[in-house]
Structures are given as C-alpha cells and as structure tokens.
Amino acid sequence: MAARATPPSDSVERLADALHAASIHLLRRVRKADAATGLSPARLSALSVVVFAGPLRISDLARAEQVRTPT
C-alpha cells in the first residue's frame, strides 16, 4: 500500500502563500521595467540569452529562442 501524503502544516502553507504573493509582485515590477525599455518581449528575450550565454552564432541564438534561423 502506498503511503498517504500528509497535509502541509500551517507554517508551510503560510510560506507558500508568501512566496506566491512575492512572485506576483516581482512579475508586475519586471513587466513595468521591461515596458520602460521600449524593446519588444522577443528582443528582450534574445538580449537576455546573449547577456547570459555570451557571444553566439545566430543559429545558436535561434535554437535557444526556439525559433527558425533566419534565411
């Protein structure tokens, strides 16, 4: 017989709720910051890949962004 999962304790639920609320606030702030750049979401995403990965061939960037390589 499989063991039953025990319900989370109150402290775990409070922590989960606090993390969820913090995540929502962070996402809102990031959206505002992204909008202030004047760049499209696609361009910001590509820029982020290059910033964190370093110099890339266009084919590697396309693969990372899950788009087709330009022709």
Describe the overall structure:
It is built from three helices and no strands. With 71 residues, it is mainly α. It has a domain at 40-71.
Q: Would you spell out the secondary-structure blueprint of this structure?
A:
Blueprint lengths: L9 H28 L3 H13 L4 H8 L6
Essential attributes:
mainly alpha; 3 helices; elongated
Tally the helices: what do you get?
Answer: 3
| Helix coverage percent | 55-70%
The structure class reads mainly alpha
**Strand residues, percent:** under 5%
Care to give the gist of this entry?
With 71 residues, the protein is mostly helical. The protein has helices at residues 10-37, 41-53, 58-65. The longest helix is centred in the N-terminal third of the chain and has 28 residues, at 10-37.
